[in-house]
Amino acid sequence: MALTRCAPGTLGPALGAENLFQCAILAGDHDFMDKIALITGASRGIGAATALLAARQGWAVAVNYQGNQAAADAVVQQIRAAGGTALTVQANVADEAQVLAMFATVDAQLGRVTALVNNAGVVDVPARVDEMSTERLRRMFDINVIGSFVCAREAVRRMSTQHGGSGGSIVNVSSAASRLGSAHQYVDYAAAKGAIDVLTLGLAREVAAEGIRVNAVRPGLIETDIHASGGLPDRVRDLAHQVPMQRGGTAEEVAEAIVWLMSDASPYTTMSLLEVSGGR
Ligand code: NDP
Questions:
Q1: Among this protein's residues, is 186 annotated catalytic?
Q2: Which residues are CB-neighbours of 151 under 8 A, at least 6 positions away?
Q3: Ligand 1 center to 98 CA (angstroms)
Q4: Ligand 1 centroid vs 144 CA: distance in angstroms?
Q5: Do the beta carbons of residue 3 and residue 32 sit within 8 Å?
Q6: May I ask the CATH architecture of the domain 32-276?
Q7: Domain-by-domain residue ranges, the chain?
Q8: 112 CA to middle of ligand 1, Å?
Q9: Burial of residue 52 (number of CB atoms within 10 Å: 0-12, 13-18, 19+)
Q10: For a pLDDT cut of 70, what percent of the chain falls above it?
Q11: Which range among 19-23, 57-61, 73-77, 226-230 shows the weakest confidence by mean pLDDT?
């Protein structure tokens, strides 16, 4: 495959999908590297913390975002300022064409991914199941489940030794909600994360002999903007008393687990669902 590069600080080549994504190499010139990570939803929160930590550990990082380009650019600039390599890739993970364009951009700008973090995810406002519209349910599953499946599929097509790849690692960001159920708040979200757990268990077995490890982290109550996006900005503080450790977690604490699972430091770990929840 012909590899193309952006000059530092310039927009990337269109690759025939100009309207579906933007790419910006904000890092300096570099050699193509084996540690190439695509992190979805990395403009803020857990994804941003993961991108920053991974870059510090030598990964070239593709920072996916959906709408907040300024925040994604800020993550990339922080990585670059520390001497790392990163690019932004806009895509709605629920839109297959945008996901395909995103992977094509990463192929062209960094090379085949060797790690995928399926982190992009959404909640909705609190509701009982008997109040949920079909539209709400479709959005929840389109982004949180189908988005992760399609990204995982594209990653396997690049990592699997059966497809000429040299292996890799997929980390799915699930939630403690998948075992708690999230009654009276968002059972739809919890069910979507249950599907992510099963994706992890099944795909891990499917590709274990092809050089790919697949794991999930199940964060508990983590201080990020996701709670405000669901109309509950104080959710972590309000529920912290239910956590055995008596506090919410930080995005950085979750990132430590994700980057460990991504890396060669966990070579025999696959099919695991790692709780990062303070005991909740
Ligand atoms: P945030 O709401 O802080 O960040 C969400 C990120 O996902 C943003 O970068 C956003 O990009 C991106 N995003 C949202 N929708 C899409 C989409 N359709 N396509 C691509 N990117 C998208 O979330 P958190 O950091 O809190 O959560 C990250 C993951 O962790 C999620 O999967 C969440 O379910 C999970 N989790 C979080 C917990 C918590 O307490 N915070 C607990 C358990 C699990 P942009 O802003 O550009 O649109």
A1: no
A2: 38, 40, 93, 99, 116, 118
A3: 17
A4: 9
A5: yes
A6: 3-Layer(aba) Sandwich (3.40)
A7: 32-276
A8: 24
A9: buried
A10: 88
A11: 19-23
Question: Per-residue pLDDT tens for 193-226?
Answer: 999 999 999 999 999 999 999 999 999 999 999 9
Total-model pTM: 0.91
> What residue ranges line ligand 1, CB within 6 angstroms?
40-47, 64-68, 92-94, 119-122, 143, 173, 175, 219, 221-222, 224-226, 229
Tell me if 170 sits within 8 A of 258, measured CB to CB. no
- Angstrom CA distances, 52 to 125, 200, 235, stand at 29, 24, 25
pLDDT tens, residue by residue, 96-134:
999 999 999 999 999 999 999 999 999 999 999 999 999
Tell me what pLDDT residue 57 has.
98
CA 228, CA 124: separation in Å to the nearest integer? 10
